[in-house]
## 1
Amino acid sequence: MSQLPLDGNALAGPLSEVFSVDVTSAIGECAHCRRRGPMAETVVYASAPGLVARCPNCEAVVLRLVRDSGRAWLDLRGLICLQLAIPPDPEAEPANGT
Amino acid sequence: MARAAVLGRLSWRVGTVIELRDETPTARTIVLDVPGWPGHAAGQHVDLRLTAPDGYSTERSYSIASAPDGDRLELTVEPIPDGEVSPYLAGVLASGDQLELRGPVGGWFVWRPGTADPVFLVAGGSGLVPLMAMIRARELTGDESPFRLVYSVRDPASILYADELRRRARDDRGLDVTCAYTRMAPPGSPRPAGRIDASLLIAAGWPPDRRPAVFVCGPTGFVEAAANLLVDIGHDPRRVKTERFGSTGGSP
């Protein structure tokens, strides 16, 4: 296993099993220092069991993901908010304001 | 706001090795045929899953080197000494073998044509791979965004895609390529061997007031050093996107 940490880009594959939109470009707000930034900029340790992402500013844990056969545990208590871009639904009817 | 791709929930698919190409004495490109490949954006990666006969399985991420081309996908792998997966991919894997992969993934370290912003690419060693996908996609789509690449590499023999880079630097309009050698510069090189520094990034990049999109990729130490230099010389940290390899291997 690698000795140095990765960055949040490495979350893209594992989280694609859970989320239907890309989480690395989502903006996360750290519950400890309130830094807001793309999840791709977090510092990711892959040598723990599962993945641990830390805030690049204060190093607090912002996300933990552990997978086992057929299950995933996702701990997001280190984030106050995760702002995700939701692409427009091509099937949706145009909004009908009244 | 970056456009978000609808990924759906990604599952593993199987690709077949259809070609292997040596890029340097150590690195090689794996050309895969992946039936039903949905296409990708330049800068995205795939996760590969390798499973041993005893059932032990491990995953690694590899950047996509090629521009979108139907079911064809190219990865370039530089073996990490003592690595668990990369020596196998760079040395043992043979044509006709199958690989499990998941992707494309990653929506942040991505260049999309059509923005017209100048682009500044900074590569350390095999960090060139996703940036090469951007250079290839630019030419394929006829995009006219001006690109500048600074490529920090150990010595001339370690240059990935050397012939193609030379050809593109000559033929792709609006692409400038600067190689910076860390261990051994070729005779007549304008710059002695050494790590990249602020003067190189100023001379070979875009001035910060052009507001370039900046992409930095390489080993962790290289990326941190380069990103700090870029911010020091005035680039907006929000315009500097980084992707780190976690290994200590292949320092550029």
## 2
Amino acid sequence: MRVLVVEDEIRMAENIARSLREGASYAVDIATDGVEGLYMAQSEPYDAVLLDLMLPRLDGLELLKKLRNTKQHTPVLVLTAREEKESVVALLNAGADDYLTKPFDLGELLARTKALIRRGKGQPSPVLTVGDVEINTSNRTVRRAGKNISLTAMEYRVLEYLAHRPGAIVSKEELLEHLYDYNWEKFSNVIEVYISGLRRKLNNGRQLIQTLRGQGYMLQ
Amino acid sequence: MNTPAKSIKRHLILTVVLSQLLLAAGLVFTGVFYTQRRLEAALDTDLEARAMSVAALVRYAEDGSHSLVFEKSLVPPPLDTVHPDFYQIQKGSLELTRSGHWPSNLTFNNTGLKAYRSLTISGIPYRALFLRQIPILDREEAPPSSADTLTVVYATPTVALHNQVLAAGAYIAVASLIWLGLTVLLALWGIRRGLLPLKHLAAEAAQVSAQNWELRAPPDAEQVAELRPLTEAMETMLNRLRQSFMQQREFLANAAHELKTPAAILKSTLQSLLQKPRTAPEYEAGLAQALDDMERLEKLLHWMLRLARAEQWTQAALPRELEGIDVAGTCEEAISGLRSLARSRKVELHLTTNSNVVCRADPEDLELVWVNLLENAIRYSPPGATVEIQVSRDNGSGTVVVEDHGPGIPEKDLPHIFERFRRADPSRTRETGGFGLGLAIAKALVEAYGGTITPESTLGRGTRMTVTLPTQQN
């Protein structure tokens, strides 16, 4: 999963990003003003946007309205220092999916972001099940037929993304776009390394991940 | 409601009653005095008539002896049989007659022709008249060329007179008391009615609260001349209270709001540090970051307290005793504190002092003003540029100009640069890491000391902040 954090307080943004990377294995990008944030949100396929309201150049609320006007359905979690009912109503009406008031708990931010992404992908439960594989997104554990399977952070990222779209063909490009942040060099063969790793670890006779040559991967 | 310690109503009623009592007493006294004087005058006239009529009963004997006789049988019977009149008639030192029980001690030293005396005979008050040289009326038997005259003393009891005076006094007193009662009732009614607007006003004033600052003076209270200054004073007081209340509330809201950001940063730093077990150097780095965040929070708190104090000073809510301080000195202090920042940005700070400017201010406040202005100027200056600070004096005011050669501020943003939370240019503010509060603080502090701060800016050429401060007058 890839998340955009739009927050002008660098330290805050870095803390959030660190938490999302370490606590959810997400790829995280940071935008420090409204204009940059809007540009990034529109040009990259984020799975969620965490949006601060008080932003230079373009106010968070305006950014949100502009984003929704371009039919972008990315889930948006607003971080606000305001608590007044009116602004909350305005936020939700402008297309925000959830909000958190500063100062917030990073754990709560993490949980809400996960839930937001889950709902955005049509998955109501934090435990994703594909065949006999269970992926618990809240504590990032993977079991196959009741047996714990230990994965690297990147392997987990790939599996979690595929598990959110069971039965669908996910292209290598899509995986690259959703699993890496802006600063990473995107080598397509890196994905293949993780896929083969996953196959090896999850192998118990029946192969879960299928490769459709020239099209991508499918988990089922 | 407690009984008030001092009641206007009671006070007014007491005044009315006392003045009425005084009036009644005066009336009674005057009435009694007048009645007594009138009755005494009438009695005196009567006394003389009676004395003369008794004297008329003296005549010469018919035997030609020219001796005088008194026709006692012709004396009319006394009106008051219990306290009869007394009389004594003498010719020279020869006593012709006297009534029974004539007190022997009754003497007149007086030598005039006519004299009145009030006296007491066996406990009864009497009025006595002494007449000399009364001619004898009987001329038939009088010897030729006779010049005999009589001396008459006549006394009559004044018991009846005193009773009459007392009756008149009692009558006046009773009548006065009845009138007094009536006027007190009237006064009570009047006072109650007169104080009614005050009651209404109090009821209206009781409605005033932090939610409802409006004091609508009731129409009857507005029509009362004595209450008008009170309602006006209450309205001005309420306005002042509301203003400072609103200011406090706004400050509280702003303060809470502005503290949230650094508090949220600090919290997130600590939470992300605790998210998973880390190595000692990682913890160390995290704690250093937290300390950094804490210092930012602390600085903001310090600024906000200064600002709160400055704003209270503007409202003259805090007393202050300030000494005259050298403005250029505070500039130097600010500059020396910013040297390292200036050096790291390769910006030159240049102070020019044309004259000695002395202001009444807290030096720390002025220093904070210069620090905020200079910090802004330094951060927006390109490397190698100079920030100029000029201290000069006009008549009555000192001027400090802080000028940078940075990119300048767009004209549309100029009016907003002093608003808290405003960050005119994002490309700058990200680097400043400020809270958008520095300029707001500078402005509030300058205004707290009765000064002004004026920004001027030309895009591409730089920004010029002109601060004027009233100089010390003495």
